[in-house]
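Researcher: I'd like a structural prediction for the single chain below. Treat it as a standalone chain; there are no partners to consider.
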Amino acid sequence: MTLPPTTPRAGLFAFAAVVACLLCAWLLFGRGASPLQTDLLTMLPATERHPLAEDAVERLAKASGDRMILLVGHADDATAKEAARQLGDDLRKDAVFASVVAELPPFDLDRLVTPFLPFRFHLLTPEDRAAVAAPGFDAVAALRRRLNEPFGATIGTRLTDDPFGWTQHWLDRQPWNRANLVPEDDLLTAHRDDGSDVLVIATLAGSSYDDAVQRRALAALDGAERAMVATHPGTRLLRTGAVFYAAAARAGAERDTHVVGIASSLGIAVLLLFVFRSVRPLLVAFLSTALGVVGAIVVTVLVFGQLHLLTLVFGAALLGEAVDYSIQYLCARANAGPAWDARRGVRQVRPALLLALATSLLGYALLALVPFPALRQMACFAIAGMTVACASVFWLLPALVAGPARKPISPALVRLALGWQRIASGRRALAATGVLLLLAVPGWLRLGHDDDIHLLISPPPSLDAQTAAIRDIAGFGGGSQFWLVEGRDAEEVLRREEALTDRLRAWVDEGRLAGWTGIGTMLPSQKRQAENLAAVCGSRHGGEGNLPHGDTASLASRRYSGSYKSCFAESMVTAGFKGEAADAYEAAFPGRVFTLADWLAMPAYTPFHYLWLSGEHGTGSIVVPQGQDDPRALRAAAEGLPGVSLIDKPASISALFGRYRGYADAWLGAALALVGLAFAWRYGWRAAWRVLLPPAAGIVFSVATLGYLGEPLTLFHVMALMLVLGVGANYAVFLREGEPFVVHRPGAAYAGVLLSAVTALLSFGLLALGSMPALRHFGLTLLFGIGFTALLAPLSLPAEKTNA
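Model: Treating it as a single chain, here is the predicted structure.
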């Protein structure tokens, strides 16, 4: 048997395909870390006005790190504590956890208090500063009240170190003293009416977004939870952390991939067997498509360094479009009968496939232009996959199916196609289409809009509910809304944050805010510390001694001068303190200024370092509200304050979606114009409108249908319309180009178009069943768009070729 002329080229393509498959396997499995990405934040665009705001968003999102935050609850306090200890012990046995904290290590209060003593005169609460600065402040009376406080009311600082209680009041305002969790029996416990909850924190030994770490950690937690509940019936476990959200995203994407990939593959296989009545065309079509998917994975991972699971789900749907190219080649072969020649066959289908590929790539290229990582990656995947699948038709398939087909495509499909082609072509079909376009107008007028970020990120409601419950029970604040405070340097940032927190303090008093977490409550500005010290000086000498802001050196030089020499000591002795204690407290004055370096060095503040921003993008701080999530109220809190702005990532992305959706009309119009120019170049101006009419009408009817269904229009609907244009133009081109070659068998060309459309519907249409709203909108729009365009494709035929 002589080999077809395409064999050398096919050999080179086959060699390249084997290399691509090996590279794909290495990229996915051979590098240790999987490129599959489940971090939802990587899908989102940069929406904030400058990089520091984006830094703040990322810092806040990762504040919990790679940790599981767990709350073990039970109606009985002792049972809850025993269950938490058991859970901690079981988790600690698995090496997937770097550390598990259930029981607290021995804790020395002195280790928390002592580091603050050198700064005690600079650290006052607003109430203490106002009290000591008020005219007529009676130091002796204040000291006597402190001495007469009930035993145990001032746990923390010693009387001799903090005779006025200023340092204790300061410590009481620190974040660790404002949580609902309190140390009991070496456990952090929160008490509620329905029982007690105990905190357990498990830190992963790897990334929360590492697939292997996710699976092992969740398996370990499930096993430990079962054992805990078996030993302590009635125990409940609440959980939150990035690992749970990442695992939920992965599970949803895997489920969608299986549904779309397996169901569409089975459906396409059955359809191809029915149409071609042979296994070989089925294998060839799937081989071409598989090579397209392999090429798409390789290019996407090489370009982006990772492959998001959303892209993988979309790639599973791409099967239905990538298989179109091989289907058109196989249909041309089946329709040619014994006269088939592989080389002539390639020349026959090349114009149609190249024009169809160009129109499809145009739609995906418009997606790639959107500054949206998720859409860009999906566009890259599609462009690479479609190109490789089409190239395989030119260079590989002629060698694999060189001889003529044994059987033509299914006569039943040809008869069905011919019947509809006669109905959907000619002047009467054009008139009917015009009437349908008028009927579409009310549907357009009913359209609403929805730009909610949850269309893209939609975690399980149960997980969100557990996160909210943990926030309420444990007193953890935080969320996706926060104030960003910016300044030229640390001092300016701290002063501006104090202006904000002074306003927030009034809101808390009015009940408009439950509280906030910010560095300003832990590290006062030097200006505020100078005010504190000046107030203390006034208390030492009958209200005098107020100094210019920041003039702590002057205070130190006057420490032993005349009127200031022993005011503290005299007041303390008069109130009843021993002379040695009074002298020691007097000698400690004025102490040191509390600096940013001191704050960063204190272990107690390590969990709150994420609140401070300093780097190439500037200096700033994060202030997180608690008990208020109304954007208008939060924005009002920052009004008129220089350098203070509300950052609301979900609202920013929703606004971005809205802007892109507004731009999409222009993009879609530009795409229609470019496709029209391509058709005019190929078919001439007088015929181009006919070829453009099916996809254009398909877009109009799809949008109208969404309106009639009450489906609000989103960015993802509009992006899907770009693909309707590309895919729908393919069908018009396939029919227009293929009709001259099947004059001996009327309807055969349109049968190939319907076959391509059904395979696309079996894949893209299944996206409508996906768990992610964005994919459902993609799938629903493509389901309508592809369906309408395929039915209207006969309109593209020349007037003399129709059978009206």
